[in-house]
Write a structure and sequence with these properties.
The protein has 216 residues and is mostly beta strands. 13% of the residues lie in helices and 38% in strands. The chain has a single domain, classed as SOS response associated peptidase-like (hypothetical protein yedk fold). Strands 3, 4, 5, 6, 7, 10, 11, 12, 13 and 15 form a ten-stranded mixed β-sheet that branches. Strands 2-1-8-9-14 form a five-stranded antiparallel β-sheet, with no helix packed on it. Strand 3 and strand 4 form a beta hairpin. The radius of gyration is 16 Å and the shape is globular.
């Protein structure tokens, strides 16, 4: 489950990489956590747009108080589940999530550190995602997950669905079967790099609106 990733590029650089004609001014931080803003690429009528959205679909759990903040569902385990299938079938709700690296926690409980994964030949790459409008947080997005490849599996059994450059159009415009196929494809380990760090996984309080991440 991915609960932290980075975008260490400006909005203008991200827009240029994803062929977005009109770059926006983004308030998204370099480190993105569930429940906080991130940059997302959407497409409508053949025109791509770079937007700022909250990472995670708001979910109210049973027993929550009426005034309690929803939990952000920031990872998508199975596109064929009822919660996702309605969006996944409609290309207008698919998106590209710009990423420069994603992290997984590694180590013993209470002492877990950040292990980062990146694509050395791709300073910016895309994570397949879905988005929608919400009453609670406005536009929101979540990232599609798949089984970890041999490179990531020693750290975690799941990883983001990473897209090659020539996959972007197929993810954004392809059929539902096309979308499902990305969850069963193994991303090549040889294209990835790993950086183990001494940084503690939890090193600061979450920003306003952040909550416990959920995978559905």
């Amino acid at each position: 489950m991915c609960n932290l990733y980075t975008v260490r590029k400006s909005a203008a650089e991200v827009a240029a990489h994803f062929r977005v004609p009109n770059p926006m001014q983004s308030n998204a931080p370099e480190e993105v956590y569930p429940g906080t803003p991130g940059m997302v690429v959407t497409e409508a009528d053949g025109i791509r747009e770079l937007r700022s959205m909250t990472w995670g679909f708001p979910l109210r759990l049973k027993g929550m108080k009426p005034d309690a903040k929803p939990k952000p569902v920031n990872n998508i385990a199975d596109l064929s589940k009822p919660i996702w299938i309605g969006l996944a079938r409609k290309p207008q709700w698919r998106c590209l999530i710009p990423v420069t690296a994603f992290a997984e926690a590694e180590g013993t409980k209470g002492e877990k550190t950040r292990t980062w994964f990146s694509l050395p030949d791709k300073p910016i790459f895309a994570w397949a995602g879905l988005w929608r409008m919400s009453d609670e947080w406005g536009p929101v997005y979540s990232g599609v997950m798949t089984d970890a490849n041999e490179f990531v599996s020693p750290v975690h059994d799941r990883m983001p669905v990473l897209l090659h450059q020539d996959d972007h159009d197929r993810w954004l415009h392809g059929s539902f079967d096309d979308a499902l196929s990305f969850q069963t494809r193994v991303f090549p380990s040889k294209l990835m790099a790993i950086e183990r760090t001494p940084e503690l996984w939890v090193k600061r309080k979450p920003q306003a609106g952040a909550g416990e991440a959920i995978l559905l």
